[in-house]
Amino acid sequence: MLKSFSRMLLGAALIGAAFVPQAFAETSINALFMAQAAYSEADVRAMSEAFTKANPDIKVNLEFVPYEGLHDKTVLAQGSGGYDVVLFDVIWPAEYASNNVLVDVSSRITDDMKKGVLPGAWTTVNYDGKSYGMPWILDTKYLFYNKEILEKAGIQNPPKTWDELAEQAKIIKDKGLLATPISWSWSQAEAAICDYTTLVSAYGGEFLKDGKPAFQSGGGLDALNYMVTSYTSGLTNPNSKEFLEEDVRKVFQNGEAAFALNWTYMYNMANDPKDSKVAGKVGVVPAPGVAGKSEVSAVNGSMGLGITTASKNPDEAWKFITFMTSQATQNQYAKLSLPIWASSYEDPAVTKGQEELIAAAKIGLAAMYPRPTTPKYQELSTALQQAIQESLLGQAKPEDALKGAAENSGL
């Protein structure tokens, strides 16, 4: 009896042991995302839940911070082994590669990925011939316009040049339709650099030449002069100097702007009758050009997902990244951010209801102009943000402000 009881205990212990590995097989990975623009927090959570359903042995802990906190949070967490997967801006691979923040994943990228993803999208994650992640958000800024306001002003077509935009805004203002027809994201933040870069691309400017600042003259100076003129002319909403992209979206959705520069995500949000007063009146075209210099203008505002060098679970992290950037996932959420996959643009499920945006994207995404590629990007951006703000507030002439930015850029 004692022997049989012992055997029963042993059997129970063995059965229990058989279940132990399964119970403890779950791997946790920590992922850092931003809580604004493109995919919303709810959408990223839904994508992650779908991933966990397909991979029940991997748990994903999500953290969201505003864009402005994304870079510092990533860098500061390295010492504590904080994150496995991080969202990163196109401007950071040079710095992250130089400081060993992200893993080189070139060997993990398959031929199907190389062939299927739009060529321009790879510039988001590549530096010095290596890939530091997968492109995820493919984006540029477009010119949005209120079709109803333009029609009331007797304007037949949206502007094709930046000068035309100012002329049309003046017509709208003079007719009493809107006091300040243009809205921009000119807060002292990266948002202002994205608007500035769009204009630098229009004016054929250069940020760097032989590794040294070149924005103090030519197209770089022309771009800042345009911003200041637009601001001081009374055509631009004076609060633009404090606006981020979400502020611009709210003003535009409220019917208080005829023109606004913003990312892809605004198109479907501004067309949602539940939240927007301008649903059905939203027009979108590539950002304008400059006569004799450019047809259109565009900034590369894309973002990628990468594995940090602090990650203890790089294989699981890569599995999560490939799911999040897969064509199936991207197509499902194409109303928020356009897919990185070339063949997605032939899929009616992606294009239906946003044909106007897709038409603008085919031109805008091909013209994306990069912000400067340098490991010292943060210092350069901070110096330029200050120069833009000083110029808008009349504290310095644009040429002096840009000379100061060049001196303070660390380059």
List the keywords.
single chain; 411 residues; alpha+beta; D-Maltodextrin-Binding Protein, domain 2; 2 domains; 5-stranded mixed sheet
Structure description:
It comes from Aminobacter aganoensis. It is found in: Periplasm. The structure is a single chain. This protein is α+β, with helices and mostly antiparallel strands. It folds into two domains: 28-139 and 301-367, Periplasmic binding protein-like II (D-Maltodextrin-Binding Protein, domain 2, 3-Layer(aba) Sandwich), CATH 3.40.190.10; 142-299 and 376-408, Periplasmic binding protein-like II (D-Maltodextrin-Binding Protein, domain 2, 3-Layer(aba) Sandwich), CATH 3.40.190.10. The chain is 44% helix and 15% strand. It has helices at residues 2-23, 41-54, 67-77, 93-98, 111-116, 119-122, 147-152, 162-174, 190-202, 218-232, 245-253, 266-270, 314-324, 327-332, 348-351, 355-364, 377-392, 398-408; strands at 27-34, 58-65, 85-89, 126-127, 130-131, 134-137, 142-146, 182-183, 208-209, 212-213, 259-262, 282-290, 294-297, 303-307. The protein has a five-stranded mixed sheet. A five-stranded mixed sheet has the order 8-11-7-12-13. A two-stranded antiparallel ribbon has the order 4-5. A hairpin with a 3-residue loop joins strand 12 and strand 13 (294-297). Helix 9 crosses helix 10 (218-232) and helix 17 (377-392) runs antiparallel to helix 18.
